[in-house]
Design a protein that fits this description.
By secondary structure, this protein is α/β, with parallel strands linked by helices. The protein is built from five helices and six strands; from the N terminus they run E-E-H-H-E-E-H-E-H-E-H. The protein has one domain: Leucine Aminopeptidase, subunit E, domain 1, CATH 3.40.220. Strand 3 and strand 4 form a beta hairpin. The chain starts with a strand and ends with a helix. Bound molecules: adenosine-5'-diphosphate.
Length: 169
């Protein structure tokens, strides 16, 4: 059984086995969660991202996929980088957003991670509406078979925390 928990705060302050990063496909860092993770994780995270890019993802990590690196100076063992879809009003990209959660949990299982922290993927710069993102995130985590014991959603602000709270009932 996987327990789903909810925390309002900064994902880079979480003590968990794996922290999920809402990365961009370049894997070379960016703003939002990505910037915060690289700042606090330090150069070891970026170095491994660069190596992964050179060895496997020359064209970038595809949207909906996930890959793990060291967590550097973070209080975690791994960072799982996943690339969320940019919100589109004309195209349904829900499957890609669900895939971020599924693939991150698959990678977490491969690593043997028991506790995993997720941000609200795609709800920042990628503009996904929070209600819809929360519905997809919670539904996907509830329905994906995994050995992860705790999935912790870490929401930056009170509004996002309330929206996720309503989805979890
Ligand atoms: P994306 O590009 O996938 O939209 P962002 O990093 O821009 O990713 O935003 C994703 C969500 O993460 C947003 O809701 C944003 O408020 C939130 N966020 C930003 N910084 C942090 C942080 N340090 N910890 C947790 N959540 C954060």
């Amino acid at each position: 059984m996987t327990t789903i928990t909810l925390v309002q705060g900064d994902i880079t302050r979480q003590s968990v086995d794996a922290i999920v990063n809402a990365a961009n496909s370049s894997l070379l860092g960016g703003g939002g969660v990505d910037g915060a993770i690289h700042r606090r994780g330090g150069p070891a995270v970026l170095e491994e991202c660069r190596r992964l890019r050179a060895s496997h993802y020359g064209k970038g990590l595809p949207t909906g996929q996930a890959v793990a690196t060291t967590a550097g100076a973070l209080d975690a063992r791994w960072v799982i980088h996943t690339v969320g879809p940019v919100w589109s009003a004309t195209e349904d990209r829900s499957d890609l957003l669900a895939s971020c959660y599924r693939e991150s949990l698959r990678v977490a299982d491969e690593l043997g991670a028991r506790t995993v922290a997720f941000p609200a993927i795609s709800t920042g710069v990628y503009r996904w509406p929070m209600e819809d993102a929360a519905r997809i995130a919670t539904r996907t985590v509830r329905t994906t078979p995994t050995s992860v014991e705790e999935v912790r959603f870490v929401l930056f602000d009170e509004r996002a925390y309330d929206v996720f709270g309503r989805q979890l009932g």
